Every structure is written in C-alpha cells, then in structure tokens.
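Q: Start with the shorter request: fold the first protein.
A: Done. Sequence, then structure:
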Amino acid sequence: MDRIRIAVVGGGNRGISVTTNAIQRMEEFELVGYCERHPVRLRQVREATGLPEGRLYADFGRMLAECDFDALYVVTEPLKQTALCVQAMEAGKDVLCDVPVSYRLSDCWDLVLAAERTGRRFQMVEQLRYSTFVEEAARMRAAGEFGDVLYAEGQYIHNVAYTRTYWDEDRGVYCSEAEARGRPHCTREDRIPLHPIVYDPHEMSPLLRILGDRVATVTCLGTGLGSRVYPADDLIDLETALMRTEKGTVLRILNSFTLPYPAAPAHWYQILGTKASFETPRADWDAGRLWRKPDDYESFARRQDFERVGRDLWAPPIVTELAKHSSHFGLDYLPFQNYADAVLRGAAMQLDVYGAAEATAPGIVASISAEHEGTPFRVPGFRPGPERKAGEEPASRLARSVDGRIEREATLRVRDREAFHA
C-alpha cells in the first residue's frame, strides 16, 4: 500500500478544517468519500474539499457499502461516534475518532471489544499529546529526571457555551441559548456535556503519556446543576476531579466550558516530582517553568527558583509545512501522521483503543462520583489480562464505588439522571 484511502463522517467546522488542512495536504492519504447528513453542511463539504457529487453521501450505511476506503475519520457528536466506529471496524475498516469518543463507559467497552474481535486499528485523534512539552516531559520521566512523580494536574477552561449550546436543525448551525429561544428545532448540543469533567481526554491523554500510567480511582465535585453564568438550568459550570494512578501519582483535573476566562491558553498542566517540577505557561506573555533539585538543596546555600522555558511548548517539536496549516498549535495533523506511519512504516500507534479508553473513562467515572457527593469510584481496566481475555465481555460494564455499594453508568442528560445530589 502506497497511500491510505480515507473517508470522513461529520461535516462540521472541525471535520472540514482537519480534512482540508491536514488530510488533503498529506501525501500518505487520498480522500475518497465524505458523509454528512445535513444538506447545508454537505454543500459546505463539497465546496471546501472539491469532492465530486459521487463521493458525497448523506447516509453512512450507503457510504460504507459503496465507497472503497481503508480508514474512516469519525468527527460527529460524541454520543453518536461509537456506533459509527463499531460499524466501520466490523466492515473491515480502520478508524480514527475525534475526542471525546463518548460520554459512556459502555461505549468505551464497545470500542475495545470491536477492535479486539475485528483486529482493526483504532486511533483517538487527540493532538495535545504530540506537543513539545509533552514529548520533553515524557522523556524526562522515562529518564528518571523527575524522580518519582507525586502529583500532576491539568485544566481545560474554554467558554464555548455562549456560541454553541444548541444545534439548529433547520439552519444546520450551532447557536447560543439566547438564539435558541423560540426555535422548536433547536436541541442541546452534545459537545457541551451535562458534566464538563467528561470532556477530559485533552488533559488525560498528555498526562498519561508523560506518566506511562493509568487512572485507578477517582473522586469529583462540581458547582452543581444550574449555570451561574448563563440562563441554563441544565448546565454545570465547573467540575474538578482528584484521581490516583496505579503507580500512586495523584492527579487533579479541572474542566469548565461556561466560565469567563482568557481565550488562551485554554489548557494548563503541572508536574511535581521528587527531583524536578514543571508547568506550562498561564498566559500568552508567560513562559513555561522548570525547576531541578540542586545537589546542595538541603543547605539552602543559594536561592531556589524556577528557570524560564521560553520556546514554544505547544507547537510540535518539528514545525513542518503541514504544522503551519494545522490548527491547535499546528498539532492537528500529527495523529494522522502517527496512524500513517503505523500503517505504511510499521511504527507504533500512540493512542490505540486501550489508550483511548484509558484517557476517556476517568472523566466519565468522575461525573458519576460528582452525582454522589464525591464518593470515590474505581476506573475499570480495559486491557486483556487474567480477568478478561481479548474479545471477552467484562464481568461488568458499570462503574463501581470503592466501597462496592454503588454500581452504575454515567448520566447523559438532565432528564436521564438518577440520584443526582450535586
């Protein structure tokens, strides 16, 4: 195989941007099909990609049956992505899926089992793990330069509720709470979840890559149901989770999609180790900070302070022409480059189906904890082992509290919630 024939499902801004600025600019890929159910968006796809009418589909099943492709990029609403991914893998296609893959534990299991049973590749398209600071921090951790990492944290504060709280089916656009009033065809948009903590792969994926670890237990609290920023009684403004990994590192994750906050940087991370500490910039004018424990630390003979890390920590380590066209700090093309390297050159995939589940499930379980006043819950392990062979169903698909008293799936909508105590 010289080139990978790829199809795309999902014609929103994100799907079109990644397709035109990354996929269609990469010599490893040939775009052979595109599916989008809404006619307005499908017209936008045609104009942006230049695909002929015969390569455009409004029905996914028809594209799967008629279009000859090797891999599928899924970039739709999170609650619809898993079914499309599973259907494609069962049809013999590799899958690249945007974040978050879902807000349900059961969907994580569906993806894992489909990949195991079909043998198809699955890659979650999370781009921040390819940034310079993650590459360098992962190298430092592997080389022992951090010592034992005792604590790490990440936060994602991105006020998008004012523009895309609702989906207008008539016009094929996202709209705000105010714009949706009086429009019967406007429905709540899945990209703004009931629990903000479930949208955590942009924090979990980089941190777990740095740590080489997985989350074992989690507890979470939030501000409670009902926004204090927007007139919405079915939004939670902010949630923060404390987690512990298998190796004993404590993590803190904070997410908010309604809080007024500077536009950049939306993400912030910190690593605290017994030999070194590091954090990313908090503002565009700021710099990263790195501190290494000196040999004379106990004597306090000289002032201890951080050193500034001035280079662009968000950009990829090597800024290529593709990076210059990609959004998200030039990182959007790198998950596709990694997948292409795996298929065409035998490289290891960075975020396969197990890594995707491990970066997604902690936020889902945290949302359940938040509905039980921070009760600690265990995060399931998804990799095959003594308790489950590859392709076998797990003993349970539900999250279980540490004390064993609660076992349940996540809440998706306010009308679906049970025993909500926040």
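Q: Next, the second protein, separately.
A: Sequence, then structure:
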Amino acid sequence: MKPEGIRTGSEQDNNPTEDKKDGVMWVIRDFAKRYRLDAKEEARLQKHHGPMASLDVLLSSARRY
C-alpha cells in the first residue's frame, strides 16, 4: 500500500505536466519499465534514490546505453 497523496508514474499518464507542479513520485521499477532500462540500471537507480523518486530526478540520473 502506498502512502496517501503519492501517485506513481502510471497514475500521472493523463497529465504528464503534473510532475513539475506537485512532485509526482515514480516507483523506480515502473520508470525502468517505461523507459526500457535494463535490470542493472534499475538496480543502480534504486541504490541511489531508494524505491521512489521524482520524474525529473530520474530522467537526469538515468543512463541509457
């Protein structure tokens, strides 16, 4: 069960600009799947940011090879 008031990436699909306004948090696993990151990069992001992070943080720190 997720904490009250936190929406995951899949819940913000209807309005992608919401992440800038109110800091929508993404579950790292959902982010990795959506952006086609491999398991190694997903693990690196989870180690660095924990299980959730904001979209702008994830986009700036993800590496795609």
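Q: Describe the second briefly.
A: The CA atoms of residues 45 and 58 lie 8 Å apart. The longest helix spans residues 39-49.
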